Amino acid sequence: MSCRSLAQAARRAGYTPLVVDCFGDQDTREACAGVEVLPEALRQGFLAKPLSQALEKLCGSIESADQNGDTLELVLGSGFEDRPKLVEALGKKYRLACCGATAIERCKDPQHFFSLLKDEGILHPETSTQRPAEPAGWLSKRIGACGGRHIRRLKSKGAAPRHRYYQREVSGEALSATAIASPGGTAFAFTQSWCHPYKGQPFRFGGSVSMDALDADLEARVIDTCLSVIEPLDLVGLVSFDFVVDDAGDAFLIEVNPRPGASLEVLDDDEGTLFKAHMAACRGDDALGVLANSWKPKPTAAAYLYADQGPLKVTSFPWPGWVRDRPAPGTTIAVGEPVATVVAQAESAQEAAEICRDRVARLGAVLYES
């Protein structure tokens, strides 16, 4: 729904991005040659007609796609996980530099996805499309959703709402494997994330940090799992695999996001190497060659500041340099909604995460005091 991270990565990689998103934040506009904002999509999702009109307006505002005069390439971020038909329609009009409708449908249809995991012998939580008779220990998730805000713990019996599926809760540490899948091979990097619980939203996304190192055995098992589903799911370019690692060291695959995700914020470098590799992979080129000897990320963390203390109206504010997704003056943010993203770099991942959490608290205090 926000394209700021993608737009900045594209700019670092030497592209001139054009963006359609729900916010049009200040730093998104600074990174782009053109921005169209569809705020209503935040509530109802992207709809074909307004999205097509916004894309056509952007396309009409430039004479060529980039400095080489190539055809426009469309990179999709979040907001399309439950709309494979819309993605299919976009793919007929634009060159998609991302996973297509088939990948999205296969990843986000729980019956297809978890049947595949079962067939491949991949460890995953017990999952059902039918509401469990006994709710204890089960989670309810909305099909095609992202960000964790849609996940609920089942607390009572009752009718099953539409467009949801059910999964046994697994206790452990969250681990994400970010992959760049390309014809020449697949590269991996890893992040850890944490939750920022809120009223009725125990799994709301809080932030993530790049990992200094991963246990060799765990890394091998996670990579083997990812590689075994890349082809069956028709994945290409930047995608992410979300795991929960329990106390025994077993890695349960929870979901696959067939798009560039939040990890781009903490894994890309100053040259936009990950975005370059993503574009190469989507064109059918060898992404590993782009990464070799050039990808130099620093230990980085990123976290969301939410308006949890009440509605917030943004004034003209001297945003610190470590704030991203800066809302324009006059923007009103509803209680519980994200305000901005805070980032931090340090000598280690742990230090970066600690600095990031401290900055979130400081920024929240200043904004509400002002």
Task: Explain this structure.
The protein has 370 residues and is of the alpha+beta class. The protein folds into 2 domains: 4-107, 3-Layer(aba) Sandwich (Rossmann fold), CATH 3.40.50; 167-369, D-amino Acid Aminotransferase, Chain A, domain 1 (2-Layer Sandwich). Helices cover 32% and strands 24% of the residues. It is built from 12 helices and 18 strands. The chain starts with a helix and ends with a helix. Residues 64-69 have low confidence and may be disordered.
Strand and helix map with partners:
Layout: H1 4-12, E1 18-21, H2 26-31, E2 34-37, H3 41-44, H4 48-60, E3 73-74, H5 84-93, E4 95-96, H6 101-108, H7 110-120, E5 127-128, E6 138-142, E7 152-153, E8 164-168, E9 173-182, E10 185-195, E11 205-210, H8 216-233, E12 237-245, E13 251-257, H9 263-267, H10 273-282, H11 287-291, E14 300-306, E15 312-313, E16 323-324, E17 332-333, E18 338-345, H12 349-369
N- to C-terminal separation? Answer: 28 Å
Main CATH class of the largest domain: Alpha Beta
What does the radius of gyration come to? 20 Å
Q: Please state roughly what percent of the residues sit in beta strands, choosing from under 5%, 5-15%, 15-25%, 25-35%, 35-45% or over 45%.
A: 15-25%
CATH superfamily membership of the largest domain, which one?
Answer: ATP-grasp fold, B domain
Biggest beta sheet attributes: 8 strands, antiparallel
Task: Give a count of the beta strands, DSSP E runs of length 2 or more.
Answer: 18
